[in-house]
Amino acid sequence: MMRIFIAFEGSFEAFEVSAHESVEAIKQMVKDYFHIPLSEDKQGRCYLELMYAGAALRNSWRLSDVGISFCSTLKCCVKKEDKPTLCVFNAVTQEMMPIMEAMSILEKKVSDLRMLVTQRCGFPVSVYCLRTPKGQEMYDCNTLRDYHTDIGTTLRLDVWDGWKEFLMGCLLGQKLKVQRYLSKEGPVLKYQKRVALYVAAFHGHTELTEWALKQGAQPHEAVGVHPYRAWCHEALHTDVSNCPIHAAAEAGQLLILKAFVNCNVLCLECKNAAGQTPLAIATKHQHKDCVLYLLSKTWSTVSFLKLSISMRIYIKIKQWILRAQSHGCHKSQLGRTKVSGAKVGDTVVVDGFTQPKMTSKSWSKAGDKNWQSTQSKLPPCMQQSGREPVDSLSISQQGTRKQILTFPLLMDTNTFSELQSNQQENQKKDCAPARIKEKHIKNKYLPQVPLPPVSRVNYSHPQFYCTPPSDDRLVRSFFRSFSEYSGRTPRENAIYCLAVASAFKEKRWLQQLGIARVLAKRSIANLTIQGGPAKCENPPEIIL
After folding, report:
1. Domains and CATH numbers, the chain
2. Is the dihedral of CA 501, 507, 513, 515 positive or negative?
3. If DSSP codes are grouped into helix, strand and coil, which group holds residue 303?
4. pLDDT 10s digits, 399-435
5. 3-state secondary structure of 50
6. Are 250 and 285 contacting, i.e. CB atoms less than 8 angstroms apart?
7. In contact, 94 and 157? CB cutoff 8 Å
8. Residue-wise burial string across 231-247, b where 16 or more C-beta atoms lie within 10 A, e elsewhere
9. Which of 152, 158, 197, 501 is the most buried (most CB within 10 A)?
10. pTM for the whole thing?
């Protein structure tokens, strides 16, 4: 038994405990002594937390594991943890997205929840849908209560089939990955470019933004909907009219905003579904730098040869010119009416009737014919008679064009043996200079590496000997069992223990190293209880 001290809300009390007592038992003693009320419900929970040397102690640890000795002082406090109202599992990133809004969101429509999800992940509302835990698709016009959604329910975010890799490339800003998974269908391709620009603007990927702008995507152009749903105007979400400039202003991406305004000044007066300009959106989310930049651009002047007008008037004149040009184009179509939506032969998606195409299938499993066509095939090899060397290979391309790739001629065996013998003789002659040169090169890079005051580079290192294990198979089986039941290799477990011990900031490094060693031994000891994992029907839970 040993005595430790617990500090709680101004009081300082002593407790007689065992050195091998668990942290959970200590918490129970503190709770009973100070009569601390703890509660847990669907909205959150109150719990005790013990602090030692700047780190929070886990319930499964023992006092001896973390070096708590005689007369040590532990700090106790009551913490409150709010549980999320809803959770959304992102099928693209494989991450859980907590929704911490009030319970009143359960009385709202699915469209309101999708607005919150878009603000968190940066996906346009037209590229994904939400599903219940049973897999039922949730439509925007219904409320969350219609799908029996309660506090703590986990919903699923699914995207268009074959779009997972494309959207992951957009999230990471990987231009090559985005280009690889683009569709070959014209309307879908244009829609994907707008989506890529929207996601890149939200996450601040400048390279992907520059590429999308060069591909013809406009920052003040609405993302819109997938061509498969272009005909159902009444069932569309209102935020499908949002533009990439709105995403950049909402996320506070100043560099993206500058690129968009330099591309087209119409972005300054572009309004979203709620009628807000980028300046109003940046002000709402308190992005000070973006607000100052947009203000300076909005109230600037445009100078011509003999005239200077304000930016607002210049934007209105430009909008009027664009409307006049579009009206003239419509008249020049000889009375043809412009058809919007789906046409004969196009693929359409009808809610509740057609087979769902938002199930987050990967590119290869989506059955895209375009993916199969992108696989390169080697041309047939041209056979030549006799023993003449193959010096060219013709590859047929579109039409009658042929590209000839010339390869070097093959050598005879005698010529090759002569060259090989000459190389060996040259190597013998240049052996000594090469060694000296190699030594100088090595010494050249040595000063770049931090070395101790006395360098021991030229001295040979002592040899270390260790006794081999009595049974190598037993050791290998143990490592295999450890990796299987703990989910980490011994090296990964050691790194993890060092990371956990580094949380004790008030301890010196050697003391942290000792804590890490004890935790590593404890994790191994838990696997050898009752004769090892192989003999346990239910293997013990790993502490770390």
Report:
1. 2-82 (3.10.20.90), 87-299 (1.25.40.20), 472-535 (no CATH)
2. negative
3. strand
4. 434 444 444 444 454 554 555 555 555 555 554 444 4
5. strand
6. yes
7. no
8. beeeebbebbbbbbbbb
9. 197
10. 0.63
